[in-house]
Amino acid sequence: MKNCAVVILNWNGRKMLEKYLPSVLEYSRDDADVIVADNASTDDSLQWLSEHHPEVQTIVLDRNYGFAEGYNRALKMLNDAPSNLVPPYPRTPAHSNYDYYVLLNSDVEVTHYWLDPLIEHMDNHPEVAACQPKLLSWTDKDSFEYAGACGGFIDKYGYPFCRGRIFDTVEHDNGQYDYAQEILWATGACLLVRAKDYWDADGLDGRFFAHNEEIDLCWRLRLKGRKIMCIPDSQVYHLGGGTLPKGNPRKTYLNFRNNLTMLYKCLPDNELRKVMIMRWLLDYVAAWQTLLVNRNWGDFRAIYRARRDFRRIVPQYREERRRLQESRVVQRVPERTTFSILWQYYAHHRRTFSEL
C-alpha cells in the first residue's frame, strides 16, 4: 500500500511540467503516488499530461484557488472516497489513506532517492510533523535557492530567513549546513508533512492565497508542540519565481499582508502589541524606501494596501487567534529568534546564517 502522495499544484504550467515532472516520476519511491492537482489552468496542461503521462493521476479544480486553498481542496479530495467525487474531477487517485503528503512546486527537479531520507526521518521520529530537503538553485546548482534554502527561521519581528539565505544574500553550498536541523518553517516549494498533522492544524490558511502560508502552517504546528526539520541528505533544485516573479507588486502585497496576519494569529499575548507597533514603523520605512530610493511606485502602493487590508481583516481572525493561544503547548518557540535580523544584517553586516 502506498503511503505518500507527491502532489504538484499546477496553474498554466505545462512548460514546467514538461521540464521537471520526468525527474519526479523517475526518482520517486515505489510507495509514492505522483498526482497533479490542476488549479483551473487555461493552457493545455491537462491535455499534455493525458497524452504524454497518462499514468499520472490528476485532480481538476473548478477555479484557481491559489496555492494555499488549492492544496487544501486537492488534499481534501485525497481523504474523500473516490465514489464521493463528482465532476469536474475526471480522474482521481484510487488510494486515499496516505500517511504523508509532499507539496511540490511544478518547477522543482528532484534527485535520486530524494524521498528516502525525508520519509525515513519521519518514520523514525513521530514527534516531527513536517520536513524539507536542502533546496538548491536550478540555475546555479552550487548555491542555495531563495525560497527555503536549508531551513527557515523568523526573527522577533516576523522577518523570515534561512540557513543559506538572509534577505537577498544567498550563500554557495559548501556543505556548511549538511546536518539535520530543527527549524521553524519548511519551504512550500518541497514540503513533506504528516497527513494527520496537516488536518489537525486545519491545513494551510486559504485566505492567504499565496506567500507565507507554509510559515504560518509550520508556526501553528510548532505551537502545538510538533517539530519541523530540514534533512539535507535529501536535495532538490528549484527554479523559483514561476508564478509571481520577484519585484511583482502583487507578490509584495501578499507577503506583507500575510506576514502581518500570521503574526497576529501566532504571537503570544505579551508580545503582540509591541511587535505590531514596531512593524507599523518598519513597514512604512520600507514603503518610503522603495519609493525614494528604488523609485518603485508599485511596491510603495502594495505595502500601503497590505497594511490597510490587514486592518480590515483582523476581526475575522480574532476568534481563531483566541483558540490558537488557548491551545498552545509551546510558549516560547526557540526557532523564532530574540534578535532583529534587520539589525544583524544592516548594522552588524552579518550576511550569513553562521555569522548570527
Q: What do you see in this structure?
A:
This protein starts with a strand and ends in a 9-residue tail after the last helix. Strands 1, 2, 3, 4, 5, 6, 11, 12 and 13 form a nine-stranded mixed β-sheet that branches. It has ten helices and 13 strands. Helix 7 packs parallel to helix 9 (about 295-325). It is globular, with a radius of gyration of 20 Å. It is of the alpha/beta class and about 350 residues long. Residues about 80-95 have low confidence and may be disordered.
Q: How large is the count of helical segments?
A: 10
Tell me the strand percentage band.
15-25%
| Proportion in helices | 40-55%
How many DSSP E strands? 13
**Structural class estimated from helices and strands:** alpha/beta
Order of helices and strands: EHEHEHEEHEEEEEEEHHEHHHH
The span between the termini is 45 Å
Which blocks of ≥5 consecutive residues have pLDDT under 50? 81-95
Radius of gyration: 20 Å
Shape assignment: globular
Mean pLDDT: 93
Main sheet makeup: 9 strands, mixed
Briefly summarize what is shown.
By secondary structure, the chain is an alpha/beta fold. Helices cover 40% and strands 19% of the residues. The longest helix is centred in the last third of the chain and has 31 residues, at 297-327.
Note the main attributes of this structure.
10 helices, alpha/beta, 356 residues, two-stranded antiparallel sheet
